[in-house]
Amino acid sequence: QKEVEQNSGPLSVPEGAIASLNCTYSDRVSQSFFWYRQYSGKSPELIMSIYSNGDKEDGRFTAQLNKASQYVSLLIRDSQPSDSATYLCAVNGGSQGNLIFGKGTKLSVKP
Amino acid sequence: DTEVTQTPKHLVMGMTNKKSLKCEQHMGHRAMYWYKQKAKKPPELMFVYSYEKLSINESVPSRFSPECPNSSLLNLHLHALQPEDSALYLCASSQVAGAGGELFFGEGSRLTVL
């Protein structure tokens, strides 16, 4: 059974701090990795995709991928209360290469 | 603003009703998906359409019937649902299916079955 594991949280950080979200996956052949943000009652919104080992930065967000360790992370710098949401890690590897989602980490940024 | 549009946003139906959820995308994507999401759970894949043909049915009960009239439209027909089918139903699209590309979700249709 292919799995994507995330700490469910809640992860609480003060405003302005760096939030670090982590994800591990079981399928070694996975090639595509995504982070989605989901506000309560809303649909998932794609915020980062990463395909190669290393770091990828987009504004306050940095995704990090280590395929050898089967680990992907998301760093949010200068966290804002508006970043409070559930963050879903998704990895390709399900039926016919479709996405497998982790259970999500709930992030709370305190003013 | 999402480029995947779902209607209706909210739907309440009885167990004997027949209703449909609709989804439209104008990104030229050739893969469309239906996901189901219960509270505090991740999205669960239901169906995948690739080039307008059903390519994946994740053992979904027959009371859910998908339809892809063309490359931009995806419907989910609902009949004789159960209260446990109440959930957020998400439509998504990607350039192609199974290639590990980015998946874009619509805003969802929140279904309540009485």
Characterization of the model:
The complex is a heterodimer of chains A (111) and B (114). Chain A is 0% helix and 54% strand. Chain A is built from no helices and eleven strands. Chain A has strands spanning 4-6, 11-14, 19-25, 33-38, 45-50, 54-58, 61-66, 71-76, 85-92, 99-101, 105-110. In chain A, the strands form two sheets. In chain A, strands 2, 4, 5, 9, 10 and 11 form a six-stranded mixed β-sheet that branches. A five-stranded antiparallel β-sheet of chain A has the order 1-3-8-7-6, with no helix packed on it. With 114 residues, chain B is mostly beta strands. Chain B starts with a strand and ends with a strand. At the A-B interface, strand 5 and strand 9 of A face strand 10 of B.
> What's the β-strand tally of chain B?
11
Shape of chain B: globular
Poorly predicted parts of chain B: none
Largest sheet of chain B: 7 strands, mixed
Summarize model confidence as the mean pLDDT of chain B.
93
| Rounded average pLDDT of chain A | 94
Task: Give a quick rundown of the structure.
The complex is a heterodimer of chains A (111) and B (114). By secondary structure, chain A is mostly beta strands.
Salient structural properties:
heterodimer; A: 111 residues; six-stranded mixed sheet; five-stranded antiparallel sheet; 0% helix; B: 114 residues; four-stranded antiparallel sheet
Topology:
The complex is a heterodimer of chains A (111) and B (114).
Chain A: E1 4-6, E2 11-14, E3 19-25, E4 33-38, E5 45-50, E6 54-58, E7 61-66, E8 71-76, E9 85-92, E10 99-101, E11 105-110
Parallel strand pairs in A: 2-11
Antiparallel strand pairs in A: 1-3, 3-8, 4-5, 4-9, 6-7, 7-8, 9-10, 9-11
Chain B: E1 4-7, E2 10-13, E3 18-25, E4 31-37, E5 44-50, E6 53-57, E7 64-70, E8 73-79, E9 87-94, E10 104-105, E11 109-113
Parallel strand pairs in B: 2-11
Antiparallel strand pairs in B: 1-3, 3-8, 4-5, 4-9, 5-6, 7-8, 9-10, 9-11
